[in-house]
Design goal:
Leucine Aminopeptidase, subunit E, domain 1; seven-stranded mixed β-sheet; Aminopeptidase; 493 residues; alpha/beta
């Protein structure tokens, strides 16, 4: 999906037919008033704003006739100074709600080029629709071609290029995640990533079952053995000529999760095509980092399988061996994400990168703990701080949870090195998932310290938005935290 053209114009000239002009609305002395704007508003001076349903609430929008066959869009901006994040969300909301127009002219206040950039970024992220599976009914038609911001604070060409690259990455993730499991399976996901990486400077390797077995990837093979569509591992590499730091990204890529023989209830199986969001996110972020030519080496590991029940599926109490030699007793086949990530984290550790960040729709417990808009964050404090600061920079929400070592004993096994869950335990599910993953970073399973700094992002609650769109977040697949991953690379490069 192509982003609209972004134009920063120094001044307002005149109204054009079939163009919509965005005016801010705020409150003064408990009365709705038009906010400061460079757009001509004399036609609205006698209007009682409250009588036409205008609201000061952020992102609320009302359309009214403007001169020369144009349209006003009066948008609520609250009663405080607008932050960069507010402007990004307003840009997205405006573009989404007015996408039936070809041209939008925005007259929101900006104090510097960063404010203007945020509006443009929001507009690029907000104009997304997934209509590939619409048949007789039509989906949202995006007609928007140009977004103009009236401002003296013009972004640089590099900033505008970054907006387009990030929007491409986020929308690639959204498109992949929105695909049904019938069409997106391990082989097709691997090929889609390979296609998306062409021309970006990223090299791609795809490992099928024979290579997975040769490399000792028992976690990925075990999860995928119940499906007729075999598992894959995809390795992406970006090696710039400059840059000394090395970032490894690991993504969970369960293209559909039935729970395996520990079968999910039917209601819980809905939406399980989203269980590959981590893999899609790290792939999209790696490609974006390469397109932006950031001075940092990046290796991404996509751990891809389809978790199905069949006569060949792994059983509860089976023992598998991960890449690092650690044996795992599988007590619940529906705790499969950590099994594939065990192999990915082990592989990532072997190159001794400076940082590892894994991204996964790992636990339903994170939604119970943090709600629908925060990702859970755990790991080594240095890496956690970088991820948290990067997320704050781009306006995505994370919340650190402790790696509570007192819970580690819950995943001891009588017959293997570790169990993947504690059956019957409902306490600290997200943290237990993090503690399990920690065992596969570097030499930690052996009790040895290493210099690899690791962070784990549990995006199970943020990968999919079942409610109405808000800010930069659409309904359905969100593409959340792709921009955070790119911001991490910029910070440590």
């Amino acid at each position: 999906m192509t982003s609209p053209k972004m134009v920063a114009s120094g001044k307002f000239t005149n109204f054009n037919k079939n163009t919509v002009y965005v005016i801010p609305v705020t409150k003064k002395s408990d009365k709705l008033v038009l906010g400061a704007t460079p757009i001509e508003t004399s036609a609205l001076t006698t209007l009682d704003l409250s009588s036409v349903g205008v609201s000061v609430e952020l992102e609320q929008l009302v359309r009214l006739p403007a001169p020369n066959g144009a349209t006003y869009a009066l948008v609520g901006v609250g009663q405080k100074d607008l932050s960069v994040h507010d402007l990004r969300n307003l840009g997205a909301a405006v573009a989404r709600k007015l996408s039936s127009f070809k041209d939008i002219v925005i007259g929101l206040p900006t104090k510097d080029a960063a404010d203007t950039t945020a509006i443009f970024e929001g507009a690029a992220l907000g104009t997304y629709a997934h209509n590939a599976y619409k048949g007789l009914t039509k989906g949202t038609e995006i007609k928007l071609q140009t977004v103009t911001v009236i401002t003296s604070h013009k972004p640089s060409a590099a900033a505008l290029n970054q907006i387009n690259v990030l929007a491409e990455g986020v929308n690639l993730t959204r498109d992949l995640v929105n695909m049904p499991g019938r069409d997106l399976y391990p082989e097709s996901l691997a090929k889609a990533v390979q296609s998306a990486a062409k021309g970006s400077g990223v090299t791609v390797q795809i490992w099928a079952e024979d290579r997975l077995a040769k490399e000792g990837l028992g976690g990925i093979l075990g999860v995928g053995q119940g499906s007729s569509r075999g598992p894959r591992l995809v390795k992406l590499e970006y090696k710039p000529k400059v840059g000394k730091k090395h970032l490894a990204l690991v993504g969970k890529g369960i293209t559909f999760d039935t729970g395996g023989l520990s079968l999910k209830p039917s209601i819980s199986m809905l939406g399980m095509n989203f269980d590959m969001t981590g893999a899609a996110s790290v792939a999209a972020a790696t490609i974006a980092i390469a397109k932006l030519q950031l001075p940092i080496r990046v290796t991404a590991w996509l751990c891809i399988a389809e978790n199905m029940p069949s006569s060949t599926a792994q059983r509860p109490n089976d023992v598998i061996k991960a890449r690092n030699g650690m044996t795992i007793e599988v007590l619940n086949t529906d705790a499969e994400g950590r099994l594939v990530l065990a192999d990915g984290l082990s592989l990532a550790s072997e190159a001794k990168p400076d940082y590892i960040v894994d991204v996964a729709t790992l636990t339903g417990a994170v939604q119970i703990a943090l709600g629908n808009r925060h990702a859970g964050l755990m790991g080594d404090q240095e890496a956690v701080d970088i991820v948290r600061d990067a997320a704050e920079e781009v306006g995505e929400l994370v919340w650190q949870l402790p790696l509570a070592t007192d819970l580690r004993s819950l995943i001891e096994s009588d017959i293997a090195d570790i169990a993947n869950v504690k059956m019957g335990n409902t306490a600290g599910g997200t943290i237990i998932g993090g503690l399990f993953l920690n065992e596969f970073v570097g030499n930690r399973a052996k009790g040895e310290t290493d210099n690899i700094k690791w962070a784990h992002l549990d995006i199970a609650a943020t990968a999919h938005n079942a409610g109405s769109a808000y800010g930069v977040v659409p309904k359905g697949a969100t593409g959340s935290h792709v921009r955070t991953l790119v911001a991490i690379a910029k910070r440590i490069g």
